[in-house]
Specification:
- The protein is mostly helical.
- The protein contains 14 helices and no strands.
- The protein has one domain.
- Helix content is 79%, strand content 0%.
Length: 301
């Protein structure tokens, strides 16, 4: 009976991993829909409020509570900014000027950026020759994606692409920072605290700059924003922590190979975005770089 139960558990977790890939990859398409009539600051603020409310209610249903107020909230506030507020805004602002498919491919460099940061800020995860080759290949993929015109500063969408790349680096910073945080505590409690901090960071800025009560927002943007808050932000956080706890980071890292292709497909199917040859080549090259950079680590495990 034990092997059967193990297989059922594995099948469940594979299903959850695929579901998470679908949810996260679809977020780029939904952001593109939402920013048509919602400014990025307001979009992010609303997304975070929806997610924070959902997670806090989820905590109450489970009979749990937010972390006790005190020093423990400072790391949560930092993670809220680097892992939610800032990258959510940069992606949303970037997608106001580029296709969602371009954005999701650019975000694929996040694991590579994490390797670079981990080399300098951790004691155990240093760049090896194999990782350096992978990083170099990944960088080549980025150059293929943005095109030669961007290298000379002539690319009209280069600043938007750069913003999305900044979001990927921000996520990488968060990943390395979380590794250095003290362990312990319920991960959903901490995640709820992070989401609450992020909402408190973005709502005042949105109210002051965008004055959202004056906006004319389409129903499509409203539904897209609601989806972003409930699924890629709140529900995805729950699935994320469950998979990490149940299977570990190696199993979870597979999602990095699934999301980019799915994200490009959603943009092509639902938004009619053009899939160009340089996008396909860039995607293959970047994912190859990620695979090579992580090859030795996988073999050891």
């Amino acid at each position: 009976m034990a092997p059967i139960e193990h297989d059922r558990s594995l099948h469940l977790h594979i299903g959850l991993l695929l579901l998470l890939a679908v949810i996260w990859s679809s977020s780029f398409t939904m952001i593109k829909v939402a920013v048509e009539s919602i400014p990025p600051l307001t979009l992010v603020a609303a997304r975070l409020v929806i997610a924070a409310v959902f997670l806090i209610v989820f905590l109450k249903v489970r009979g749990k509570h937010l972390p006790s107020f005190g020093k423990a909230w400072m790391p949560l506030a930092i993670v809220a900014f680097t892992g939610n507020s800032l990258p959510f805004f940069l992606i949303s602002w970037g997608e106001a000027g580029i296709d969602s498919g371009q954005a999701v491919i650019m975000m694929a460099v996040m694991p590579l950026a994490t390797l670079v940061l981990a080399h300098f800020y951790t004691q155990t995860d240093k760049i090896t020759p194999l990782k350096f080759i992978g990083l170099s290949i990944g960088l080549l993929g980025v150059l293929i994606l943005v095109g030669p015109s961007a290298l000379s500063g002539l690319g009209g969408s280069f600043i938007r692409e750069l913003a999305v790349a900044g979001a990927a680096i921000s996520y990488a910073i968060t990943t390395v920072y979380i590794r250095r945080m003290p362990t312990g505590g319920d991960p959903i409690e901490r995640s709820s605290g992070v989401m609450l901090c992020a909402a408190l960071q973005m709502v005042p800025i949105s109210l002051m700059i965008d004055q959202p009560w004056l906006l004319e927002i389409s129903s499509a943007s409203i539904w897209a924003n609601l989806y972003l808050g409930l699924f890629p932000t709140a529900l995805a956080a729950i699935i994320h922590f469950h998979l990490i706890a149940a299977r570990g980071t190696t199993f979870f890292s597979v999602v990095n190979y699934i999301i980019p292709g799915m994200g490009v497909a959603w943009g092509a199917m639902f938004l009619g975005e053009q899939v160009t040859w340089n996008m396909i080549v860039a995607l293959v090259v970047i994912l190859s770089g990620i695979a090579i950079a992580n090859l030795k680590r996988v073999q050891k495990q």
